[in-house]
Amino acid sequence: MLESPTSVELADARTFLIERFGVDSREVEVVGEGAWSRCYGFVLGDGEMVIRFGRHLEDFQRDRIAARFAARDLPVPQVTEIDAAFGGWYCISTRAHGTPLEQLDDAAWAATAPSVLSTLDALRRADISATTGYGPWNHAGNAPHSSWTEYLTAVIDDQPGSRFHGWKQRLQQAPGGDASFGRAHERMVELADGYTSPRHLIHNDLLNRNALASEGSVTSVFDWGCSIYGDFVYELATFVFWSPWHAAIKRTDLMSTALDHYGDMGLDVPNFHTRLRCCALHIGLVHLAYNAFLGDLETLRLTDERMSLFLDG
Fold first, then answer.
1. Which helix (H) or strand (E) holds 57?
2. 221 by DSSP, 3-state: which?
3. Residue 3 and residue 149: Cα distance in Å, rounded?
4. Is this structure's pTM higher than 0.85?
5. Could you give the CA distance from residue 122 to residue 129 in angstroms, rounded to a whole number?
6. CA atoms of 273 and 109, how far apart (whole Å)
7. Cα separations in angstroms, 242 against 113, 120, 180, 229, 311
8. What mean pLDDT is reported for the chain?
9. Using one digit for the tens of pLDDT, what is the confidence trace for 123-144?
10. Residues near 148 by Cβ (< 8 Å), separated by ≥ 6?
11. What CA–CA distance (Å, rounded) separates 33 from 233?
12. How far apart are CA 119 and CA 200, in angstroms?
């Protein structure tokens, strides 16, 4: 028994797949890994698949639910199997190929940006009428908060049992403490109180090797562990907030491109700039908490600097 499912090595994955599928599984290779899972590609029969090993069952359950939202402009892998392994869980799904959005060069990103906007449109159009709530949704597809403002405001809570419990004390002990967090939280709540939010599907992690593109088109959107329900502007705000970290994205000014896109399609987005600032502040707050928990003081500092730009408009 391995200590952690995220320590599953290539040899372990090969042995597991042979035991599970026999000689029909082959060409096992490393695809990548994130904070919560490790991924391997393999061929099963005539199809290409991936298997991920991770600690959190609910992340894989969300991937299975998200497959229901798959559309022409929202290519979501189909989950075929979830079960226990190595003291955690594994998830098998169909495989797509491409380059992560944040790794595209200038020319490739410029060619792909229209497809990215189409993907954001598909997320906004996804039918979530059978679900309830705002914020992160569970294995049944429902979220815990009764309003968008309630969800945003709750970022200040250091919930026992959460993956990052203890972040507040660590943030208070970090250089500068939590003064910036308090100011940004207060301003965010003021902005959120100024408008009524729609309720849409938000992936919320597209710039972390979770969306692939090839030849100018988004080819796959996966790893829905951070997904939430709320204001669709939030998804765009993630690109705006993190653009300084990704030069090609920064140089295309996706926000202005999106506004032109909405205008061309006749989509009215009232209070757009207020909503984007509100979402950007929340993104900053989430990642102050996350990096305080990790003890990554340099990224904490850079995130704080970026967040400060959205305080005063």
1. helix 57-66
2. strand
3. 40
4. yes
5. 15
6. 24
7. 15, 16, 18, 20, 16
8. 92
9. 999 999 999 999 999 989 999 9
10. 134, 192, 197, 199, 230, 231
11. 28
12. 13
